[in-house]
Amino acid sequence: MSDFFYRPADGVLADVIPFYEDGEFKLLYLKDWRDKENFGEGTPWFLLGTKDFVNYTEYGEVLPRGGESEQDLYIYTGCILKVGELYHIFYTGNNFHYPAQGKLQQAVMHATSTDLLHWTKLPEDAFYAPADRYEQHDWRDPFVFWNEEAGEYWMLLAARLKEGPSRRRGCVALCASKDLSGWEVREPFWAPSLYTTHECPDLFRMGDWWYLVYSTFSDRTVTHYRMSKSLAGPWLAPENDTFDNRAFYAAKTWTDGERRYAFGWNPTREGEHDEGTWQWGGNLVVHELAQQADGSLTVRMPETVRAAMTRRAEIALREVVGRWEIGGEGEGISGGASATSIRAADAGESSEAAGVCTAAAEAPDSFAAAAAASLPSRCRLSATVTFGADTRGCGVLLRTDAALDRGYMIRLEPGRQRLVFDRWPRKGDVPFEVGLERPVALTPGVACRLDVVIDGTVCEVYVDDTVAMSARLYDHREGGWGLFVSEGSASFETVLLEP
């Protein structure tokens, strides 16, 4: 069976180190069993293959962790490159026991392979943060690339300076090498005095622009990017400098030669509850990146994922609150308390209208909602939404009960120009799930498209193929779906698709 958001059956997937070759993305990833008693301590690298981000081949463990007395007990993030016929990986060797023994916790380490499956570690190439410039226990997440202009390899690292405000010492360190063995530590690549650290640095060029990608956990837990016409900077922040929200982290990018993708993970929550603490690791999420005319990047669903869900499900929408006009497939408009059933498209049917439901409501000073009884556990809900002036909110309901007393909301808020993830009932004095909201351009009378992809507890939302919002759906595992308008007016054209 296809798996839209991959997760190993016996653990979780954390940071992904992507590579592409021979028509397949080779995704090295950190695996955590979260079961020290049965699997021991530490994190190795596993290898995952995919051609479409829907079907995956698990190749198993390829870079084993070291023992408790070795530097790489925890093999943390790194990078991969191929030189000639030899593959190189540079990775973080992390041992939490070392500082108590007077040893450095983190080191950059090196391994090579001829087949991506069997790796030879080169402990003699390991090196540490220089004590005169950098804090000693933050020296990780190497990213290596060939700098054509300089005629040498450059390595970017997540590091911290020894001086400056304690929460603003994070920087992207720079090292250089001619042979991928010995490395010279140079002045920082970028030290903006903004964050505690810049995790998982990644760099790529698209057209005239260079893009620096990194993740932070000090002001927000999120993946950022900056852009520059030169490797020397300045590294400029676009208006929206993130790919996603709190539920998409440690993203690194790679290309198949035509399209570039960001590979991150949607974290689990402790106890599998909506109010549980966000955890390290979870399910793989892949976004496609697109460059705009001003150089900024937008995010959209990979076309292969969209194409994997094309079977239209039957829709039976009914009024719950307020007055609605509901129709579809060329039917007349129906109002009142009746339900309108929209037939699903038969196999091979060419009619674009089959399985499409239209609905509209006017609720200038109230709330209106229409709902359907069933929402598959794996599906894509696509809705084109057009709202009127001064509308405070509108969107879709997920896994709701018949009375709308529980469930989730994907809400467009035109007045605040944002998309938010909400759940009902909420706990505490909060307006929505803080940390999951996303900025989005919303204009009255101009249609926008919401695509909501659900697979189990993972939920990924895309708006107009430009904005992504990730979430988890734990407390409500079953229920229907619906449409709503809050203090305003909106019309919807909706289709529910399954694999």
From TrEMBL:
Family indicated by similarity: Belongs to the glycosyl hydrolase 32 family.
SMART domains assigned to the protein according to its UniProt record, in alphabetical order: Glyco_32
Residues covered by the Glycosyl hydrolase family 32 C-terminal domain: 377-494
Protein name: beta-fructofuranosidase
Entry keyword set: Glycosidase, Hydrolase
EC number(s) reported in the record: 3.2.1.26
Primary enzyme class: hydrolase
The Glycosyl hydrolase family 32 N-terminal domain, residue ranges: 18-282
The keyword Oxidoreductase appears for this protein: no
PANTHER family: BETA-FRUCTOSIDASE (PTHR43101:SF1)
Single GO MF descriptor: hydrolase activity
Record InterPro entries: ConA-like_dom_sf, GH32_Enzymes, Glyco_hydro_32, Glyco_hydro_32_C, Glyco_hydro_32_N, Glyco_hydro_beta-prop_sf
